[in-house]
Amino acid sequence: MKKYLVALDQGTTSSRAIVFDEEGAVIAQHAIEFEQIYDQPGWVEHDPMRILSTQIDALRRAVALAKINPPDIAAIGITNQRETTLLWDRKTGKPVYNAIVWQCRRTAPIVEELRARGLEAYIRQTTGLVPDAYFSGTKLNWLLKLPGVRQRAEAGELCFGTVDTWLAWNLIEGRPHITDVTNASRTMLMDVRTLAWDEAMLNALEIPVAVLPEIVDSVRVMGMLDPAILGCRVPVGALAGDQHAALFGQACLARGDVKNTYGTGCFLLMNTGDAPVFSKHGLVTTVAWRINGKTTYALEGSVFVAGAAVQWLRDEMRLIERASDSEAIARSVSDNGGVYFVPAFAGLGAPHWDMYGRGTIVGLTRGTGRAHIVRAALEAVAYQSVDMVAAMAADCGYWPGRLRADGGTCANGFLMQFQADMLNRPVERPKVIETTALGTAMMAGLAVGALCDVEDMYTIWKPDLTFSPKMEERERAACLRGWSRALERAKRWVEA
């Protein structure tokens, strides 16, 4: 009997593969980091071939570390960094340009053109999103303006896709050109109600239908893994954007359940059930998943820089040697010394949506040390999450009673405690913090019958630690007031 499920978790800074048993326990995992390309200020790119090669290598290594036979894998699920946009030759598979990463700000002028044409309300009401360079549609428009590209696209010679599409096309036999509803809902090209490509948005961004993938359910057998990769054919049973997979992996299956993923960015999602809820406070409407023809929706807030700020302290500023050092360093001082760090390296996401904001550190004095800056970077992750929860509460009419946390950065105990203090609500951390991978692996299990039904996630999800709020209200209010003042100084720094 086949006993294993595998997740391919293709993220912004690394490609990871994790082998699970059918009860959700991690058997083995392997991750490979890859280069971030910053050709110009505000631009972020990835090498598509490096994305592919690192993901294949991570899969092979994880299976080897698990010491299992590939034929014993019941199914593989693919989850991915969303909005990152690729365009490649349908015959050769050669990309026409680097992948334009979700963090990239190069298409801000295109967004301004859409607003000037009065399309903002239509975009919100149809796609559930806000006009922003974050989403894929304007990135694809930019790529189509490269020399000779539009003619090839209109002739049907090119394929557009987000990372799920790129991996499915390269890893699955027959090269299917598909994307699931969760990833399609992040393009600013899909009608969030009909789950179909929207003709008006395609026309507005001058995108030919010939480049678009087929939109499919999140859970179904998409095809079989190319046997050249593991030596056998394995069903690929799920495609899902990383945050949607994490919502599923956190067993946030009921309306009102909330999770926050602390990774490169920070992504807060609330399950809103079988109908879309349209935000009035800066959040976006997205598809949570579609299983057996039934669609579940979510409200989402996205912070562009969370764990990436810690990486910046490590790689560019050399203030820490390892990301894990940040917890002890932050705890080495009793407070932030009046220092606030707004990590708006790629602008500000929800609920502010400021494409022209930039990173800011305020409150420096002669007594400021590296520990204050490191602590301020971690605190900023929590502050940004509070802003999103407050917007969600305003939209839905209630403050969530708890928050489920996941992602690599939630291993930081200082951050989790500070998050609980700032929210004044408990924060629950599960035993498996890589719930993005867990969610997509279990989705794949559903597709092949390794799980009986969706509700099995209630027993698969297991708690580890609960961080309860301890801070006095006066101190909490002072912290949030300082953050608000710092935030205003970071907004609209770049002159459009």
Please give a structural write-up.
- The protein is 35% helix and 23% strand.
- It is an alpha+beta fold and 496 residues long.
- Helix 10 (242-249) packs across helix 15 (435-448) and helix 12 (325-331) crosses helix 13.
- A hairpin with a 2-residue loop joins strand 17 (284-291) and strand 18 (294-303).
- The protein is built from 17 helices and 23 strands.
- The strands form seven sheets. A seven-stranded mixed sheet has the order 17-18-16-15-21-22-23.
- The chain is globular, with a radius of gyration of 21 Å.
Give a quick set of tags describing it:
single chain, 496 residues, seven-stranded mixed sheet, six-stranded mixed sheet, 17 helices, 23 strands
Percentage of residues in DSSP E strands: 15-25%
Instruction: Give the N-terminus to C-terminus distance in angstroms.
Output: 60 Å
Sheet with most strands: 7 strands, mixed
Q: What's the total count of β strands?
A: 23
Contiguous helical run count? 17
How much helix, percentage-wise, in residues? 25-40%
- Structural class from helices and strands? alpha+beta
